[in-house]
Amino acid sequence: MSDELSLSSKVTLNNGQKMPVEGLGVWKATLHEASFAVETAIKDGYLLIDTAKQYGNEAGVGDGIRKGLAATGKKREDLFITTKVFNGDQGYQKTLDNFQGSLDRLGLDYLDLYLIHWPVDGLYKETWQALEKLYSEGKVKSIGVSNFDQEHMDDLLQDATVTPAVDQIEFNPLLQQEEMRDYAKKIDMKIEAWSPLGGGQALNDPKLKKIADQYGKSVAQVILRWDLQSNIITIPKSVHAQRIEQNADIYDFELSDDDMGAISLLNQNKRSLWYQDFDWHTPHKQNAYHDEVDQWPDAKDFPVDYKK
Predict the structure, then answer these.
(1) In the predicted structure, residue 155 carries a pLDDT above the cut 90
(2) Which family does it belong to (predicted)?
């Protein structure tokens, strides 16, 4: 498998579109950090970039895309760009009304993947209808969901005419979501891992450290390689150039069946600590999209420590 996989490898979604197996996540990144990280990632060969309106950094991501394309000579169609419907924008008409804003901030004329960020009760089915409309009009190449469990999916599919191509969920060695993965296989939907390193908790596991030492790799690299060999799309987040490069250095080794099995035994159904305390389901206050993007045209160069 190590000979077959590379940073440019892609999987085929249920609508025939090709999606890279690894990308860059930018949750919690500022505008400056997001721009630098995205530009760096594109220079390093990343093709998949994942953001969300909720992150408040779409404009920074767009700036990084432009700089990365200019630096590498790549074209827009070489990249796979994902963003997500903000909780406060959910509902049929509100989703349609606010979609263009994400495109404008990103500086794009289409998205490769548009996700419902969370299944907001009473709204996510209407939101999905809006995504189906955007998909039918060619404004997005693929549509999917994020943080949907089997109950939400069963409800959504009762009225959906398009099966979600992707469900982006929290996934790491301590939270392996086996039931959701099995469900996704049955309906031909890909699983994409957010927080693949378990919010940093998995990095301290001694069994993972022992496996990593055997391969001369870091624990993070072993986890990301495990994702790929588990047929999981992975989007590790970093704003540091060295870590972005290291996260992509996972294609020159292959985990043995024994090591894959050992990692599978680490599951604790344990969500990240920050996740438990964060009010993701309130579409306002700390989750609200902020106006920092309006200041982007006047933004200055990055602080030096962002580049370390």
Answers:
(1) yes
(2) Belongs to the aldo/keto reductase family.
